[in-house]
Predict the 3D structure of the following.
Amino acid sequence: MKRSDGRKPDELRPVVIKAGVVPNANGSAMVQMGRTIAIAAVYGPREMFPRHKKIPDRAALETVYALVPFSTTDRARPGPSRRSKEICLVIREALEPAIFLEEFPKTCINVYIDIIQADAGTRTAAINAASVALADAGIPMRDLVTSVAAGKVGKDIVLDIDMTEEDITKCDLPIACMLREKKITLLQMDGDLPVKDVKEAMKLAIKSCEELYKKQKEALKERWVKK
Amino acid sequence: MMLQNQYILNLASKGLRIDKRKQDEFRKTEVEKNPIDKAEGSARVRMGKTDVLVGVKMEVGEPFPDKQDEGTLIVNAEFSPLASPKFETGPPREDAIELARVVDRGIRESGAIDTKKLCIKKGEKVWMVFIDIQILNHDGNLMDAAALAAITALLGTKIPEYDGKMVNHEKRTKKLHVLFKPVPVTTVKIAGNMFVDPCLDEENIMGARLTVTTKDDGNMCSLQKGGSEPLVMEEIEKALDLAVEKGKELRKLVG
C-alpha cells in the first residue's frame, strides 16, 4: 500500500533533530517530523517557586506544551486549552520515569515546549524534543524517551501519521518508551481497533522508535562530542 | 551580576560595549523568510542571540462598527517561558503588551497595509490579519527583531482563498498588498552615551530607550520611549538620525 505522501506503512516522516537551539536555556532541542516542528527548552534544576510546592525528597518536573498561534491551519488562540493541559500532563508522566529526580530534592526542572508548526504527532515530537533537551541540560537520566504514533489506514497499520492521514485513520495511538529497558512511559489510543491490531501497532511503533533513538543520540553527539 | 553591570557602565561611559561593537553597530542580523508553511506568511529574525519568529494568519470576521469597510490588524506577542529564565507562563506581561503595541503602531500608522483592500463585504465580512510574535530566545532588543520579522512576514504573506463560506488555507493565491516597509531602530542611553541594538546585559542597566520606526522615505511613523531616565533633545535627535541611517540597512534585509 502507498500512503498519501508515498511512504511505506512503517516508514517515518523525514526527521531532523538538533540539540542546543535556545542559548538562554540550560538545555534545548528542536525536533522536526515531517512538517511538525517542536522546540523544547529546559531550565533547572532551579529553586522552586512558590516555595510550598517544593517536594522534600526529589525535584518537581514541570512541563508546558503550547501550540503557537500560527502553527495550525486555523489560528490557535494563545493560552492554555483543555487539550494542551492534558498533553502537558501526559508529557510530564512520559518523561518523569527517565529522570533521576531524587538527585535534586526541593528543586524544580522546567520543560517548555513550543510547537511552531503542527501537522499531527505534536505530542510525540514534543516528547522527543524534551528528552533530548533534558539530556542536553546535563540532567542525569536512565535513558532517553522516544515517541511515535501509530494509526490504521485501510488494512494497514501505519506509523507517524501526518495531518492528511489523521483525518482517515481508524485510530491514533501515540506511544513513548525508554528503549534500553523496553519500558513504556506513555500510551494513549483513540479510535476503534481490535486487540490484535493494537498489539501489532504497539510493536511496530516501538520498533521504529529505534531509528528515532539513534537520531536523538546523534544530535547530542553532534553538540557535545569534540571532533 | 553587580560587577558585570559596573563593568558595562564603565565601558559605556567611554562609548565602549561589552561585545566590542561600535555605538551605532547592530549585531549580526539574519532574516529567514517563510519558515512556517502553515502560516499565511512568516519570518524568523536572529539578531545576535536574540531569536524571534513571527507568523501571519488570516481569518474572515466582522468589521469594527466604526470602520465598516476596513479589515482588521491584530498584533499579539507571546513571551514563551522557553525563551528566557525570566519569562513565566500566564497572561501577557506589560512588556509583551508594549512590544505588540509598538509593532502594531509601526505597521498601522505607516499605512503599510491598506485595510480598505481587506474588506470583503461592507459591514459584514472583512479579513482579519493576525500577526503573532513568538520569542524563541531573548537577548535584548526584542522590539527591532520583532518588528523586522513582522514586516518581512507580511511581505511574504499570501491571502487564502475564500468562497463566501469557507477559508481554504491550503490554497493561497493573491499576495497581501504591502505599501511600505516600516523598520524600527532602538537606541538606548547608558552612562550618558547612546547605543543602538542593546543586548540583554545592556538593556538591564539602560537608563532610557527610544524606538524609532521609519518608512522607506525616511519619515517617522512611530516613537516609543522607555526606561525611567529622561532624555534631552540632543539625545533624541541622535536617535532619530540613527534610525534613518540604520533603518536603510535593515530595510535591505527585509527584501
The interface with chain B takes residues 21-25, 28, 35, 37, 39-41, 43, 46, 64, 66, 68-75, 78-80, 110, 112-114, 116-119 of chain A (CB under 8 Å). The longest strand of chain A covers residues 36-47. The two ends of chain A are 43 Å apart (CA to CA). The mean pLDDT of chain A is 94.
